[in-house]
Amino acid sequence: MREVDCLIIGAGPTGLTLGIGLLRLGRTVLIVEKHTAGLGFSKAILVSSDSLQALTDYGVAKKIQLAGIPLDGLSFFVDEQLTSCAQFDTVKPNHPFILPQEATEKCLKDSYLDLGGDICLGMSFSSEANVLDSVGSSHEALFIQLHQKDSPDSVTTVKCNYLFGCDGMHSSVRKSLNIAYPGRAVPEQVNFIFDVEVECWPFDTLLTMWFASTDSGIMMKISADPLVVRIVGTTEASAQRLLQKLRVKKVVWESTYFSNYRLAESYGRGNVWLAGDACHVHSPLGGRGMNTGIADAIALTHAVQTGDFAAYEATRRPAAQSWVNFNYILSVVSMSQARIFHVVRFIVSLIMRLLAWIMGPNFAVVAFQKMTTSVVQRKIETEQEKVLRRDRRSE
């Protein structure tokens, strides 16, 4: 039997950030991960300014900044025309960085191991073997059974003072606590995603957003060497249109996903707590999933230090609720089949709020206001021109 102060299930960004924080408190930590190797693809690609600021004291922010690319701006296209371009100040400290999740995890993992942390790969936690719904506020030691992936009959028992579930949307720790995860799956919100290696990047900013009358999409440069671009389309046709704008050398990864919007009824109790996708999930649009999990981990570390887990749930759950609600609206609007003219003003207001979330309070407000004003004006002028052409044809 192994004994450890803190047992973390899940070695993603949330679990690794939590592990680093707990080690810095002088706790002994074991992270358990059911996968034996990385997934080979990256769901998240943006490290926000808030995350970088929080990770500065952990010694991770510099690693991310050295490995990533600063987000330099956003170009906005409507009906295939560049309507405006907002440039961001990349010199400011803790500016958001583009870095695939796999590379972010490496930065976190290296720091965790440097601090003496322990990781067991290929070992899983099951809710069937660990029924924790009777856990109360007594904080008695827990005896957790773990199973080796390649030998399911082999059981390792770990005695721990705290158990943390950072094991994703299908969290076994959440299930073992019998905590409901209400919300909805939205299968009609299908996104088509491609990571492609290209010969060159032909745009002025690393992030481009494309809106047409029937669909929308984004393109973002996510790696410089090799030069890799992520494309996300709300329809297969929009993804293919964006692909045709690039000189593609090869497809690195492709997938489709439909969106889930869920929030756990509780974030835990006693000495068993959840963080990250284990307690909230939403569409990837906006790049806040991984960053929200990192914020959870920072707050949960503080809760261990103070013993005030009620404050952890009282602050982090409303923050997640706010983002899940906003993210749903953003996703619905971006996938709207209505004419873009009728929703462009709403899109503008949503993107302003989205950038405030990503960039922090000091992002280039004036530049973006100019950009969005020109977007609306250009669209109005385009619609007026269409009306004039129809009038001429009818004469």
Which descriptors would you attach to this protein?
395 residues; 2 domains; single chain; D-Amino Acid Oxidase, Chain A, domain 2; FAD/NAD(P)-binding domain; 19 strands; alpha+beta
Structural description of this entry:
The structure is a single chain. With 395 residues, the protein is of the alpha+beta class. The protein has 2 domains: 226 residues, FAD/NAD(P)-binding domain, CATH 3.50.50.60; 158 residues, D-Amino Acid Oxidase, Chain A, domain 2, CATH 3.30.9. The strands form 3 sheets. Strands 1, 2, 8, 9, 10, 11, 17 and 18 form an 8-stranded mixed sheet that branches. A hairpin with a 2-residue loop joins strand 14 and strand 15. The longest helix is centred in the last third of the chain and has 30 residues. Keywords: FAD, Flavoprotein, Membrane, Transmembrane, Transmembrane helix. This is FAD-binding domain-containing protein.
Structural topology:
Layout: E1 2-9, H1 13-24, E2 29-33, E3 46-47, H2 49-56, H3 61-67, E4 69-70, E5 73-78, E6 81-87, E7 97-98, H4 101-114, E8 118-121, E9 123-125, E10 142-148, E11 151-165, H5 172-176, E12 183-198, E13 207-211, E14 216-224, E15 227-233, H6 236-243, E16 248-263, E17 268-269, E18 272-274, E19 280-281, H7 289-306, H8 309-334, H9 340-359, H10 365-394
Parallel strand pairs: 1-2, 1-11, 2-8, 5-13, 11-18
Antiparallel strand pairs: 3-7, 4-7, 5-6, 9-10, 10-11, 12-15, 12-16, 13-14, 14-15, 16-19, 17-18
Helix pairs in contact: 1-4, 1-7, 7-8, 8-9, 9-10
